[in-house]
Automatic annotation (TrEMBL):
Name the record gives this protein: Arginine-hydroxylase NDUFAF5, mitochondrial
SUPFAM superfamilies linked: S-adenosyl-L-methionine-dependent methyltransferases
UniProt xrefs under Gene3D superfamilies: Vaccinia Virus protein VP39
Keyword Methyltransferase among record annotations: yes
Species annotation: Oikopleura dioica (Tunicate)
Cross-referenced PANTHER family: ARGININE-HYDROXYLASE NDUFAF5, MITOCHONDRIAL
Cellular component GO terms held in the UniProt record: mitochondrion
Residues in Methyltransferase type domain copies: 21-113
Lineage: Eukaryota, Metazoa, Chordata, Tunicata, Appendicularia
Length: 148
């Protein structure tokens, strides 16, 4: 599972974090794989307020917030030692702005660990959609939405 791999990347950083922010936490799949030896305070955010409240993360002191990650994050500058984003940033429209916000809330020696789909992700699905489009309309829909 990718959440566990993202957590492993955090564990590869040989230090502990006093405060962490998990963007797009969903039900805490990533932070569930971490121990209190890694972090002591965690803020979980998601655009849907309901899902973070279902998260089971008893190892940490956890605050849960509904946050629109495409907007300015509601945290002070240099607030977190660690920011985690596991398959969340592909949902935002302005990735540059979101990354600037992550850097803003990170402490100067903080770490950002994230996972995002790459260009060749879900290749088989894209290929299947292209074949279906060719059969239906005699053309292919490009990733930007215009016809080829």
């Amino acid at each position: 599972m990718l959440a566990e791999e993202t957590a492993d990347r955090v564990l590869n950083i040989k230090r502990s974090f006093s405060s962490a922010l998990e963007l797009g936490a969903n039900q805490g799949e990533c932070s569930r794989s971490l121990s209190s030896n890694v972090m002591s305070y965690l803020v979980q955010t998601d655009s849907c307020p309901y899902v973070t409240y279902k998260a089971d993360t008893p190892k940490f002191h956890v605050d849960k917030n509904a946050v629109d990650e495409s907007q300015a994050l509601p945290y002070k500058d240099n607030s977190f030692d660690l920011v985690i984003s596991n398959l969340n940033l592909h949902w935002v429209n302005d990735l540059d702005k979101s990354c600037r916000e992550i850097l803003r809330v990170l402490k100067p020696d903080g770490a950002f660990v994230g996972a995002i789909w790459g260009n060749d992700s879900l290749y088989e699905l894209r290929q299947s959609i292209q074949l279906a489009e060719m059969e239906r309309r005699g053309g292919v829909v490009s990733p930007s939405g215009s016809s080829d």
